[in-house]
Amino acid sequence: MKRLLLAGAILLAGMGVAKAKTIHILMETVPDTRYIQQLLPEFKKETGIDVDIEAISYIDMHSKLVPQLIAPQGSYDVIVVDFYWVGEFTKAGWLMPLDDLVKRDNVDLGRYVPKLLDLVGHVDGVTYMLPFYNYSMAVIYRKDLIADPANQAAFKEKYGMELRVPQTWDEYKKQVDFFTRDTNGDGKKDFFGTVIQGQRGDCISMQWANYLYANGGEYHDKNWNPEMDSPQAVQAMKDYRTHMLNNSPPGSESFCFDEAFNVMAQGKAYSFVTFNILYAGLDDPKSSQVVGKCGITPNPGGGLNGGWGWAIPKSSPDKDAAWKFIKWVESYPIAKKRALLGGAPTQTKIFTDPDVVAKRPYYPTLQKILEGVKDFPVFTYTTEFVEETGRELNLAATGQKEIGQAMKDANEAFRKLAIKDGKLKE
Amino acid sequence: MAMMATGTVSPKAHRRSIAAQDRLFGFLISAPGLAALLLIILFPIFFTIFTSFHDYTLIHPNFETYTGLEKYSEALGEGYFRTSIWTTIRFVIASVVIEFMIGFTVALMLNTVQRFKTIYYFILLMPLLINPVVVGLTWRMLLHSELGIVNYVIGLVGIPGVNWLGDPNIAFWTVVLVDIWHQVSFMAILLLAGLSALPREPYEAARMDGASAWRCLIHITLPLMRPVITVALLLRMIFAIKTFDIVFIMTKGGPGTATDLISYYIYRSAFFGLDIAKASAMSVLLLFAVLVLTVYLYRYMKSMT
After folding, report:
1. Tens digit of each residue's pLDDT (9 = 90 or more) over A89-147
2. A236, A287, A380, B6: least surrounded by Cβ within 10 Å?
3. SS3 of A27, please?
4. Are residues B180 and B83 in the same domain?
5. Residue A4 has what pLDDT?
């Protein structure tokens, strides 16, 4: 009898599960994911669909996604795609084109910041993704130190120019130099002009890109001829190495953005060239000792563009429900709620929405930052490109390889990958 | 059973048939286990070997193009792959040798301890129970050059802060040290198990003859322990060759290529380079190296006893 009851209970539970529709999404453990999790009950109320978000750390995402994407039917209905993977995922044919659905439901793509739609939306004229959030890079600086009259006077005396929010790269470099100090007189620097996130691979590649743009360099020309050994690129590496050696805490060679962020949050540095999404953390008393003291401004010469997009994989078990979710999460009211919680917007209107600006006064600046950002080389082998060139950048930054040689090797690695991808003819 | 019941079978043949039945029975109960092993170990190995001979990438996951040994020569032709082989060899030797020295000393000491044995065991086992990823993350925080506890503590006694993970020369040894911290108890426990199983008589006899503790160690303990030591070294070496997590979490193979171990290199070829075939070829090379090492050590051990 007991067994019968148990079997009945299991059967009933099974039927219950079968009845309520659930969609599965793989996401990264970042604040923007948390904001969506908070809003999910609204989606359930509207559509009756449950959403199961599996949030994991970035490093595990790619290796977890790929097997699901190759399979005829994977376990994820919706996925989020980092701009790194866009070339690879579309070339492999894993993503479903969204143009028909966009047209059918009159989804206005014009609402997105064009640079983000180009990065994590369209590929060769086909819409594969809707931009989810942006993590473009900018300069975070200590506005209290700039406002200090003593600093202003000393800076003017030393460099013959005003101390202000940096407008040019040269000005920024002078400020970095100016603020690197030994504050307690023990002969050791203990306050730093900048924080370098120089760990090999992703961390150094992302930050160095800003140095490249600031020096007027590019990764490649219009025909994908690599330009990573140009005089501008070599100068960018020289600047980077100088900052790492002289103006950033020891150990920066192995920092990623989290360690570097901590240095900034502990009030031990003047500035930090990094992802705009980290800025909110510096204003949070739980994670920062410099609350209210920081400002954010575009990287002189342009920062690195970055973002994530929503996509439906071809292996998605329930494409209809998936599209329903994407439409909901990107609708204006929900996108606005996410921004109010602290999310990094992708839709133009949200940056200047009065409610949003009232709560997040720096959002119009974020929009300005986005207007000036530049794209990383996005192609099938972006991930490998980051790995290969990131290694050379780190070798040069740590003095294990001569700068000119490292940039030549990085350039050569890039050329090989561009040829492998058919972007460049041999 | 039927034969037994008829009683016409000779006792010898009877025994044989029982033996045959035992064999059959043994085979039957181990069959599911063997099948599972076949499925989860042999199949992936052969699949990897098969893949390494084809142009199988994540972009074009198919076996249409046979490439022969091309992927192998491509792998060995990469300068940085060869660097990572060399780094791995250095890492294995450094960590296993030091772990053995510490582990053996600790095991000898613990073997004589009578009181609080459980407490020592508990302390010893703790690092081993921690997930390697957690070990990596924790040490990464402790060793932060500016905000980490380690540099703070050594600063209190006047030693200048060390650039644990940023200096190419130091980072390698930092990774070795963290690996030792994490794995040394494995060595200690294995050796301790061996020590506690040694017979008492030879020691008593040696004591009677007036042998010192040192001579007992050299002439009795070490020779008797040889099989256990070989197994301990072998196991740790095989594990050390495969080290991945610590490097992945702590250094990403950097600074430069200072801590770029083979496993992490293979992982990158597969998931960043998308070239599953080349990564398979590298894995087969690694497997081959481990096999040769195992066979050699096994033979060596047999020849000694």
Report:
1. 999 899 999 999 999 999 999 999 999 999 999 999 999 999 999 999 999 999 999 99
2. B6
3. strand
4. yes
5. 55
Give the chain B residue whose CA is nearest to the CA of A188: B160
According to the model, what pLDDT value does residue A31 have?
85
Task: Give the count of domains, chain B.
Answer: 2
Same domain, B90 and B226: yes
Q: Is there a domain that residue B222 lies in?
A: yes
d(CA A251, CA A196): 9
Q: Is the pLDDT of residue A398 over 60?
A: yes
Identify the pLDDT of residue A426.
77
**Residue of A137, A146, A255, A253 whose CA lies nearest to A193:** A146
Q: Is residue B18 part of a domain?
A: yes
pLDDT recorded at residue A18: 47
In a domain? residue B60: no
CB within 8 Å: A250 and B271: no
From A70, A384, A400, residue closest to B273, measured CB to CB: A384
Nearest CA in chain A to B259: A200
Residue B31 sits in the same domain as residue B158: no
Domains and CATH numbers, chain A: 16-128+307-367 (3.40.190.10), 135-306+373-426 (3.40.190.10)
Read off the pLDDT of each residue in B40-58 and give the average, rounded to a whole number: 92
Interface test with A, best of B252, B257, B263 (most A CBs within 10 A): B252
CATH number at residue B236: 1.10.3720.10
Q: Which of B63, B131, B145, B146 to mutate to test the interface with A (most CBs of A within 10 A)?
A: B146
**Scanning every residue of chain B, which has its alpha carbon at the shortest distance from the alpha carbon of A393?**
B256
Residue count (chain A):
426
Token digits of residue A327: 């439409």
Instruction: Give B-chain residues touching A252 at CB under 8 angstroms.
Output: 166
Domain span at residue B19 reads 2-40
Residues of A in contact with B272 (CB under 8 A): 383-384, 386-387
Supply the mean pLDDT for chain A: 92
- For residue B147, the model assigns a pLDDT of 85
**CA angle B271–B275–B278, rounded 5-degree value:** 115
Q: Is position B228 within any domain?
A: yes
ipTM value: 0.81
> What average pLDDT does this structure show over A268-274?
96
